[in-house]
From TrEMBL:
<protein>
    <submittedName>
        <fullName>Uncharacterized protein</fullName>
    </submittedName>
</protein>
Length: 175
């Protein structure tokens, strides 16, 4: 029966004995991480799994800003901004720096859904439904503090005339 041993980058299988000497068969870590259907052992890639769990903690900071943990971290590390705009702090705790490492997943795969638009910056935040960046790429005449609600009608909905004045037809369609 094979015995399994682990190293950081190498998966070792010890098989058989010949005169009390064990044979070592070296293989890459990717093979046991493949699904069982593809011939692997179905192990999880621990780095990817860890990053996903840290991204989940960051997501909780966004969804529950009034929780005790979110309030403590906000007060300590990003008092004047949001979690997504917080800077990495050289004096930050290991937990904080790791949560910021997991934030990379959120940065790639999230964007704002516009409600009243009062908290979404036109230039900085990711809000336009464009698959690559979700942001305005071309230069914009709006300041960084200008929010999306300035592009909306008082009763809700988009001010199409204003959008056409500042954005290309393609962007107006996407908005």
């Amino acid at each position: 029966m094979p015995h399994f041993g682990f190293s950081q980058d190498v998966f070792i299988v010890l098989v058989g004995r010949k005169r009390e000497v064990r044979k070592i068969h070296w293989g890459s870590w990717e093979k046991p991480c493949e699904s069982k259907d593809l011939g692997g052992l179905g192990f999880r890639n621990l780095e990817t799994f860890n990053k996903a769990l840290l991204a989940k903690q960051g997501w909780r900071l966004i969804l529950k800003p009034n929780s005790l943990v979110a309030r403590v971290l906000k007060n300590r590390y990003y008092p004047a901004s949001s979690f997504m705009n917080a800077n990495k702090c050289s004096l930050g705790s290991m937990i904080w720096n790791n949560i910021l490492w997991g934030r990379g997943i959120l940065e790639v795969d999230t964007r704002w859904r516009i409600g009243n638009g009062s908290t979404v910056s036109i230039n900085i935040d990711r809000w336009i439904p464009r698959p690559s960046t979700f942001q305005i790429v071309s230069p914009c005449v709006f300041g960084d503090s200008t929010t999306v609600n300035g592009l909306m009608l008082p009763l809700g909905g988009w001010n199409v005339l204003l959008l056409k004045a500042f954005f290309s037809e393609n962007k107006v369609e996407k908005i």
